[in-house]
Amino acid sequence: DRLRTTCTTCSCSLRTTRAMAADRPGPAPTARRLVAWVGSSGGGAATLGHAEPDVLRAALVRQLSRVGSGAALAAAAFIACAEPLDSAGPGSAAALWELGNGEALQCTLRGTLAEVNRRAHELDAAMAKRIRAGELAGIVSVSADSAHGGVNREVLAAAGETGIPVAGTGGTSLSIAAGELGCLLAGNSGGSVATTPQTKAIGVAAAFAGVWGECYSPSFSEGDGVAWHSVLDGCMPIFLAAACAATTAEKLQPVLRSKGLRPLAWHVSSLEVALRTQALPPAVGAIAAHQSSGLGELSVLGGAVVGALCQGSAFSALLFGRGYGWLAPRLLASCARHSVPATASSIAVTGGLGVLLGSAAHMAAPSIDLVTSAVRGLLTALLGGPCNRSTGDIAGGRSPPMWLSGAIAGVLINYGARVGWYHEVFLPLILLEMEQGSLSLVGTLDWLTLCIVGAGACASQLAFPRHLGGSSQTRSDGPLARRGLAFNLLYGDYIEACYPFLERDPYLNAAAYAASACSGALVACAGARSTAYLPAPLAVSETFGTQVWLSDTPAKLAVAAGIAFGIPFAAGSLSNVLRWRRD
């Protein structure tokens, strides 16, 4: 009893029912159709995002606007219960959400489930009148209550009488609506297990488009324009935690063995391997898929599957996670167009596509790892200390002196952070070095040339406040300098605090570049590995009272930090003192 209709605008195919095509002509193709949304947070809470009505509302509004000339929500009655409704009682906490001004949801009542149900019955009757008056062209039903005496019974009965389509999820309620009330179930309406607000919305919009004979082009704009490096920025905390933990675990093992704790040392060794090879790829794949698809939890699950199959290569997870994010919504839309049930669509998109792309990533990971290893090798040859000069020639010529490459890198990082290179160039390089659970050479320069240099510049403004026009220090200098000093030393962050001081004082600005060059030269010659975003003492201090250091060369790193702090501090202090005398 099914036929296929073709949209005259874009030739997309949508499945609908012959009964609807024959019995109800529907509004003119250019009319703006209005739909109502009824339902609840569900009986078994088997869906993802089931307790977030506004997320579902936003997804519905977005997808319905792409149906023909645009459909819109005109009414809503959604009950959100604190417990799964299969086990909730009359006294369970609940809330009633209605459509307010425009298409925004408003919580109009909070109370017991019995109180909320009484108000919902009133909305049910009012909405049913609108359906019989021909104001509404469709019903979105999400885990609705269609049983005898149910709070959505009248709406669905009116939909059955008038022949308008019903689309949504909730197997029990939809079965009652179709079997007892004669409702026309459209598209892939069916069960709700493993569905998300985004999958529901796409299925609903495709179902209505099929019944109405309209064109529907799903909206995937949430993932459009997301820069690739923003995925790495978002994953930075897990890279940092894995690198620090793996480095500590590596250096703790000899200590444990020397104290006769060999079983514990074996477990620490196993933990180190897991941190270096297993922790990062699933996280990177999940974030990459989530940011580029706009499908919520569905894309997180699929991206995690892709990342887990990447043989420990986080950058393979990045590439194939982005690919998953591009393909997943398109596969989901195709399933909706062909009336594949929502649960089956979620399985195909999350499990099927995730495993398929993960298998491809598994095969491609060794090749991608060759590229990332080559970049790490180049950085090591330039900044990794004299012991790494065996890396050989760079670009067909002799390697530059280690101190020179370190000094140039320090100045470039200080300059680049001011002109927007940090998130696009430096942070991805830091995370690339940390891909296998190691600390970073570029991360060491980041900490020294930005955090410690910035702390020194801020400290000079506190020790010798600048006088402007014979007046005392401006009110903003003190709080900003204190915050910059504390945050840079205690958290390895907020490098921008010193920028106002550098811009107004050319001598301090020059000193910042000089400090970056000197400290960069020193740590490059030492091959020191560390990272920013950590308290300064942690980068160069003992761990657990043993000689276990996060940095490879803590003493030399401490000297470099003293230079990076001291030069701008001295220059800024002297510049301010000389200004006093001139004033």
Descriptive notes:
The protein has 583 residues and is of the alpha/beta class. 59% of the residues lie in helices and 10% in strands. It contains 20 helices and eleven strands. It has helices at residues 18-23, 53-64, 113-132, 153-162, 171-181, 197-212, 228-258, 262-277, 280-293, 297-308, 314-337, 342-383, 402-419, 422-433, 441-463, 477-491, 499-504, 506-526, 536-539, 554-582, and strands spanning 2-6, 13-17, 34-40, 72-81, 93-99, 105-112, 138-142, 165-169, 184-185, 542-543, 546-549. A seven-stranded mixed β-sheet has the order 6-5-4-3-7-8-9, sandwiched between helices. Helix 9 (280-293) packs across helix 11. The longest helix is centred in the middle third of the chain and has 42 residues, at 342-383. It starts with a strand and ends with a helix.
What are the key terms here?
583 residues, alpha/beta, seven-stranded mixed β-sheet, 20 helices, disordered N terminus
**Rounded radius of gyration (Å):** 31 Å
How would you classify the quaternary structure?
single chain
Roughly how much helix do the residues carry, as a percent range?
55-70%
Low-confidence segments: 1-30, 389-397, 542-548
Report the β-strand fraction as a percent range.
5-15%
Mean pLDDT: 83
The shape is elongated
C-alpha end-to-end distance = 92 Å
Q: Could you give the count of β-strands? A: 11
Spatial strand order of the main sheet: 6-5-4-3-7-8-9
Structural class: alpha/beta
Largest sheet: 7 strands, mixed
The helix tally amounts to 20
